[in-house]
Amino acid sequence: MAFDENTTVLIVEDALTMAQGMRAILAMAGVTQTETASNASDAQGRLRGRRYDVVLCDYNLGHGMNGQELLEAMRKTGALSLSTLWVMITGERHYGQVMSAAEMTPDDYVLKPFTAQLLLDRLEAAARRKAWLTPAHKLLDKGRAEQAIQTLLDLAQQAQSRQQRLDALRLCGELQTREGQYEAALELYRAVLAQADLPWAKMGVARILAEQGDGAGSSALLDQVLAAAPRYTEAYDLLAQNLVDDGDYAQASTVLEKAVALSPRNFQRLHCFGTALLRSGEATRAVEPLQ
Fold first, then answer.
1. In this structure, what DSSP letter does residue 80 have?
2. How many other CB atoms are found less than 10 A from the CB of residue 78?
3. Are 277 and 286 within 8 A, CB to CB?
4. Which of 66, 99, 158, 282 has the fewest CB atoms within 10 Å, i.e. the most exposed one?
């Protein structure tokens, strides 16, 4: 991605001075088409109404969703194009652990405080990494999922680094699962796991097993995922759903309580937590998450 006067950027930042500072840094690089949103709700409205080349998002946004929750919400609803570069800005020193265990990951993150040159360098580096998957992203934007899958398999074969290969395979597995190609996705994930014990690959297998009605097998894998990556909130969600499918609402609420503690403003998760509490007979405890 070439950053110039045609590049569109959304800055999601609740501190006005920080937002102004980032706009000034981008202007130094010739990027002048910048807009700002002061909270997640404002950002959601803008992202649904317009496609941006880059999103610079603060992790801590005050009231409402944090940056990670906003990213998850936008990607799950399809409101965020895969080609959009998302860079998280954070003062949280443990954010690397959050990102490594998140199903929806940004393209990069920058720790505060940072210099103007550091921010621009990280943007350029993230754009170069994302460009690797651009052929598949373009096909997906046109609704050509089958061609995108084949392109990703080809890219995995052509990869010059382990990370490039894994990036291509991860997106490929997600697409195969979404398209109902479960056997192909299982083969892909198991091949990845034969090389490295990666939580996202186990999560992929667990999701397919759940879809195929093997809740016990799915839950056993999810226990392994959470033992290795206890901040993987999506794994808690799927484990809770498996328990709900078995009618064990009390245990499902216990699992969701852990996920809510990690991600307290994911509204779908709060709703599931409150509902599980209600169905397990804990109406009093259900009030707070449902409110």
1. S
2. 9
3. yes
4. 158
* pTM score: 0.83
| In the predicted structure, residue 237 carries a pLDDT above the cut 90 | yes
**The two three-digit tokens of residue 132, written as one number:** 């690797």
Nearest of 196, 142, 130 to residue 168 by alpha carbon: 130
Last residue of a domain, one of 113, 130, 147: 130
Number of domains in the chain: 2
Mean pLDDT of 63-74: 85
Determine the structural domain holding residue 262 and report its residue range.
225-291
Q: What CA–CA distances, in Å, run from 137 to 29, 96, 205?
A: 26, 25, 23
pLDDT of residue 100: 63
pLDDT confidence bin for 66, thresholds 50/70/90: confident
Beta bridge partners of 36: 11
Backbone angles phi, psi at 233, to 5 degrees: -65, -35
In a domain, 142, yes or no: no
d(CA 7, CA 278): 48
Confidence category of residue 255, pLDDT binned at 50, 70, 90: very high
